[in-house]
Recover the amino acids of this structure.
């Protein structure tokens, strides 16, 4: 297990006031919140901040943490000293209000279930008082699918990490693999609701539901926007200028695309009803990309020179230079 | 963190699709977001989400509503913003997303 320097994580000196702690946390949290930030690794960073704040915002936990001393380096090997929290009194549950599984082993070993409880059982679960029935919580997960899964429908296994308490009272995870039917035509921002696949209920109460938020893996050829599918189609300058019938791929097989004469780069052509299938089926869009041939060989250069001689073309006419 | 086991369930599980149309009741959407129904009512009043239907008992929430409500809960819990702040943040985030999509289009086609 590695020592974690919670002051370093929040960018604080050891003598920071509680107000400093809060300000530093809020500022960094706004920067790294997974809903706000697009930075890679923002989620891990945010969890790290949450853990540091969980300890430093609470004067009891902070005092206990400070007692470990300031001579530790972040990442240094660490073993919890015996009776390290002796002499501290803790009001309420020692455990965090937050998501327990989000914290590191270092945090767990210091502030896990038995922190400040003298080994007594934690107040969260009261044996003998569970005669009531209740429904399990709803769970949420994201599922990444291929475009083809939505076009044709598919069955895909998904692996869910389920937090659970092990015998020692620590939070661990168990993996649960479900084979999910991906309905044909499902799109991003839609969800699949699986009844009873969330957390189990108490005392025979019904299980919660599992909500799967759907997102697409990036596709090598197509882009998906809403229910529409986009293809960038490279064409030659003469095809764009003179018009042509071009073979273009679509997920349902290749089509003959009639490119009108005088097509400019960026021109969008719609093929109706060839997007994601379903009641409100999407469309397929071809976006024209004009590619210039290279001018390396003598023949190629000659072709460009002939064009220059034949065409009175000044693309900078409007610049009046 | 230790992984203590792996459970593979055989058989294929089918679910229902939540899409653009409202299907979730106030109770279902509150339960799915792990918040009290009053909080969802406040979000509706603040204009953060717009369910179909006229009164709370008739409200039906879409998949997009559920995603937004859960985002609002996270922002409020994690960043300590109030309801008006959450509404503003969500609106700005939406505008930013649209602007980014547009920017990517412009960069792609050099329009």
């Amino acid at each position: 297990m590695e020592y974690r320097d919670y002051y370093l994580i929040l960018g604080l000196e050891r003598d920071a006031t509680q107000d400093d702690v809060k300000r530093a946390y809020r500022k960094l949290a706004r920067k790294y919140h997974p809903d706000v930030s697009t930075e890679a690794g923002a989620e891990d960073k945010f969890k790290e901040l949450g853990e540091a704040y969980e300890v430093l915002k609470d004067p009891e936990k902070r005092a206990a943490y400070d007692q470990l001393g300031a001579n530790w380096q972040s990442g240094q090997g660490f073993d919890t000293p015996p009776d390290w929290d002796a002499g501290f009194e803790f009001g309420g549950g020692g455990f965090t209000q937050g998501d327990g599984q989000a914290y590191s082993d270092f945090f767990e070993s210091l502030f896990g279930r038995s922190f400040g409880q003298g080994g007594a059982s934690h107040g969260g679960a009261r044996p003998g008082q569970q005669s009531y029935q209740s429904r399990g919580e709803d769970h949420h997960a994201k599922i990444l699918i291929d475009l083809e899964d939505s076009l044709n429908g598919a069955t895909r296994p998904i692996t869910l990490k389920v937090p659970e308490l092990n015998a020692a009272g620590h939070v661990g995870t168990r993996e649960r693999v479900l084979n999910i039917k991906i309905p044909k035509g499902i799109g991003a921002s839609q969800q699949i609701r699986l009844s009873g696949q969330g957390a189990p209920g108490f005392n025979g109460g019904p299980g919660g539901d599992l909500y799967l938020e759907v997102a697409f893996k990036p596709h090598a050829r197509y882009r998906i926007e809403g229910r529409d599918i986009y293809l960038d189609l490279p064409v030659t300058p003469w095809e764009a200028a003179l018009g042509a019938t071009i073979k273009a791929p679509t997920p349902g097989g290749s089509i003959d695309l009639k490119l009108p004469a005088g097509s400019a780069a960026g021109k969008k052509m719609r093929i109706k009803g060839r997007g994601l299938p379903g009641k409100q089926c999407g469309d397929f869009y071809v976006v024209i990309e004009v590619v210039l041939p290279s001018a390396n060989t003598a023949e190629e250069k000659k072709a460009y020179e002939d064009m220059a001689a034949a065409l009175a073309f000044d693309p900078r006419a409007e610049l009046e230079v | 963190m230790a992984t203590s086991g792996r459970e593979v369930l055989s058989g294929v599980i089918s679910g229902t699709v939540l899409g653009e149309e409202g299907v979730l009741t106030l109770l279902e959407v509150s339960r799915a977001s792990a918040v009290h129904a009053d909080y969802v009512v406040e979000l509706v009043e603040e204009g953060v989400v717009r369910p179909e239907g006229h009164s709370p008992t008739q409200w039906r929430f879409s998949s997009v509503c559920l995603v937004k409500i859960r985002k609002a809960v996270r922002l409020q819990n994690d960043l300590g913003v109030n309801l008006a702040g959450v509404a503003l943040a969500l609106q700005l985030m939406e505008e930013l997303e649209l602007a980014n999509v547009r920017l990517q289009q412009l960069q792609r086609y050099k329009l």
User: Anything to note?
Assistant: The helical segments of chain A are 6-9, 18-32, 42-56, 59-66, 105-111, 147-152, 237-242, 298-310.
